[in-house]
Predict the structure of Glycosyltransferase family 4 protein.
Amino acid sequence: MRVVHVSDCFLPRLGGIEVQVAGLAKAQAAAGHQVAVITATPPGDHPPDPDVPVHHVIANLPYELPVHPRAGRHLTRLYRTIAPDVVHVHVGAVSPFGWAAVRAAVRSGLPTVVTVHSMWGAASRALYRALEATLRWCEWPVVTTAVSEAAAMLIRQASAGRADVRVVPNGIDLEGWRQRGDNTRAVERGQVHVIAVGRLAPRKQPMTLLRMLRRARQRIPADIELRLTVAGDGPARAGMQRYLRKHRMTGWVELAGRLDRTEVHDLLATADLFIAPAKLESFGLAALEARIAGLPVIGRTSGGITEFVRPGKEGILCDTFGELVDAVVELATDHGLRERVTEHNRAVLPTHCDWPSVIESLDGCYALARRRRPSWSAVPGRRGRQLAAGGR
């Protein structure tokens, strides 16, 4: 099957969507699909993958914004050249390039799947409700998926229950992230290494991370050496550095900057627990990597982490800031609890997230999209235009 993935953002930009789309494309190519990627992200110095050609639709905009004012025209031309059996579009909260790709695919009569990788907050849900009133996007002959039930629920709310949303989790190489051997030597010396991985942006709540670790440090006995390593980069970095200097935390907190996948894997091998403080985490790929490596995970009850972390089993899930602090203190001071969670996480893997399972689920979505493919090239519009769709 010829599959073309479309994403506003792609490598060399490094984030959850970029990493996931690249991994999915590579896994599908290995499974026998013919795969290509279309993106609005400039190529930079990222080396090409011979198995997955990447087409860049670039506009000369400030800050290399991944949008294009005439995206539809360029995407339609690329669809004709590639001639895909299905178009798989990946969107976040607001993805103008991605939604232009959906419209162009439907107008071209191509089977289309849309995957939502983000949690739609109140503003996003209001926007999509307004778009439904004008563009009738819930009636488009596309298959909509979300990466978690938490993300799917918000899409259904935005559509007043009209959108049919399937849940297909992000995929991961289980064996590639699995850690083997004994990771407890540092713990036995009275050291606890906490890590967090992600973009240093406000929605990831990096300042909440620092505040909770500072509060936890005040409650953890002095004979336990607590360290925090934060991997990632972004606009919040300067503010984090100021906070660390102000509260004299630079001696035990390290901002490691952007790390590649190998470096993140090596960092997990040195750690004792993982924290994901963000409230609106649609899936939590970095947390999944840590959970597979065996680390107890501290996260929120409101996000997609609940798909692979259960309270008291793979980690601790929290509602409030105070509960996050309590969880850090509990896991940092209870070596036996950390050891039990680590042994469980290493022994019981989330097989529903491995690439063969994810590819099988997406193949089912692609087959459904082909049954729903539009029978004429029009998109629902403002004056009640309806799209004739086959197989609905």
